[in-house]
Amino acid sequence: MIWSLIVGGILGWLAGVILNRDIPGGIIGNIIAGFLGGWIGNQLFGPIGPVWGGFSVVSTLLGAILLIIIVSYLFKRRGR
């Protein structure tokens, strides 16, 4: 369980770094982005790449990137 939290947090953080965007919530936000990104990525792309801590790395990263793009877009629209 702890390993899954660490891997989910790292993958969520990495998705934010790739997009050059901060994830709201700091470490907790990174973990949530990693977990939700893993679910989204596996639903859309299937398991791709090596599995670390129960996460398919490539599909989790793609799902987290997609999640961050959607959340950022919604926050921008809400701010208008």
Which short descriptors sum up this protein?
80 residues; mainly alpha; two-stranded antiparallel ribbon; 2 strands; 76% helix; globular
**Uncertain stretches of 5 or more adjacent residues:** none
Q: What portion of the residues fall into strands of 2 or more residues? A: 5-15%
* Strand elements, count: 2
What is the residue-mean pLDDT, rounded to a whole number?
Answer: 87
Largest sheet: 2 strands, antiparallel
Enumerate the strands of the largest sheet in spatial order, edge to edge or round the barrel.
1-2
Q: Which structural class matches the secondary elements?
A: mainly alpha
Strand/helix succession = HHEEH
The Cα radius of gyration reads 12 Å
List the helices and strands and how they pair.
Blueprint: H1 2-19, H2 26-45, E1 51-52, E2 55-56, H3 57-79
Helix pairs in contact: 1-2, 1-3, 2-3
Please tell me about this protein's structure.
The protein has helices spanning 2-19, 26-45, 57-79, and strands at 51-52, 55-56. The protein is mainly alpha-helical. Helices cover 76% and strands 5% of the residues. A two-stranded antiparallel ribbon has the order 1-2. The protein is globular and about 40 Å long. The model has no long low-confidence stretch (mean pLDDT 87).
Q: Summed up, what is this model?
A:
This protein has helices at 2-19, 26-45, 57-79; strands at 51-52, 55-56. The protein has 80 residues and is mostly helical. The protein is globular, with a radius of gyration of 12 Å.
